[in-house]
Amino acid sequence: MTNYAAAPIQPIINGILSFVSGAPVFTGRGVGSILRTPLGAAFGDFTIVLDQGLPGDVGLDPNYARTMITQRGTLGAVPGGSTITQQAVTYPSTATIRIVMSIAGVGTDPAAAEIAVWRTN
Asked: Domain total for the chain?
């Protein structure tokens, strides 16, 4: 198994967030589970629990975490377009990431989104 603790830049999550019957689904690496944030917005508010096998037992230090979210899907006839105007990422613990997406302050699920999280220390 790869020693993720040995690399100065450590990929932790990389994959696609999509929806099946309204439930968030993550396809890729690094996520143990994804769910709508309890007591959060009804839509567009997700908590990701890291797969403890990636990056092993080193966890995620919020001071060094970086996240990139790329919207996928269509806006009208424009491939890759999105109406999502606001995105926020927080790191509540070393094993969780919270992502909130909205349009004018109203929580909104994206058609799909690519999410990458890495650790820079």
From this structure: 1
**Encoding tokens for residue 7?**
């690399």
Does 45 have pLDDT greater than 90? Answer: yes
In angstroms, the CA 47 to CA 92 distance is 9
Burial class (CB in 10 A: 0-12, 13-18, 19+), 49: middle
How does residue 1 score in pLDDT terms, banded at 50, 70 and 90?
very low
User: Which domain covers residue 107, as residue numbers?
Assistant: 13-119
Confidence (pTM): 0.82
Tell me the β-bridge partners of 87.
Answer: 101
| 90: region left, alpha or beta (phi > 0 left; psi from -120 to 50 alpha) | beta
In a domain, 65, yes or no: yes
Alpha-carbon gap, residue 8 to 29, rounded angstroms:
19
So what's the pLDDT on residue 82? 66
